[in-house]
Write a structure and sequence with these properties.
single chain; 201 residues; Alpha-Beta Plaits; OB fold (Dihydrolipoamide Acetyltransferase, E2P); four-stranded antiparallel sheet; four-stranded mixed sheet; EFG_V-like; EFG_III/V; BipA_C
Length: 201
Amino acid sequence: MLDPLVICEIYDLFSRILFLRYSLPLGYILMNGFCHYRSEGTSLIKYKIPTRGLLGLRNVILTVSRGTAVLNTVFDGYQPWAGDISTRDQGSLVAFEGGSTTSYALFSAQERGQLFISPGMEVYKGQIVGIHQRPGDLSLNVCKKKAATNIRSNKEQTVVLDSPLSYSLDDCIEYIQEDELVEVTPLSIRMCKNPKLTKKR
């Protein structure tokens, strides 16, 4: 099996920091990068990586450089398979039943990690609704409603929810693992656990 390769060029004031910080964790740099300063004060890094290693790389570079870096890529050829690329350490928060999400359920769910959804959204069983703060997946009931009682309270509890994470198609492809899928419709982009692999477990 062959890996298609691209040459990446990063122009930035802090490209040396970028290279030192992310060359090892990315795990797919195939040759030592080189860096030199240009006349306008920026620096350049150039190295080869498999094309599959580009997923998520642009977001990492722009985040660390605060939006000042420029990334150019050029196809360079093929090389034998370079091995698996390291993936995320955290698991996923998964809805174990379908329905409409509630503020009451999301308030307790956000303590488990970062959510992709907001109150009033329709979810289905097996849909990924957030990022677990620990390794391994966690099933949650994000549609749970507060139990109604006949006791009136003078104090109403206000629920403060964190803003949900927004994601693009590229972010989803970068995020998913082998047992997860990306669902693309004209109205939304969602992620879910692969039902075939879930049944086997």
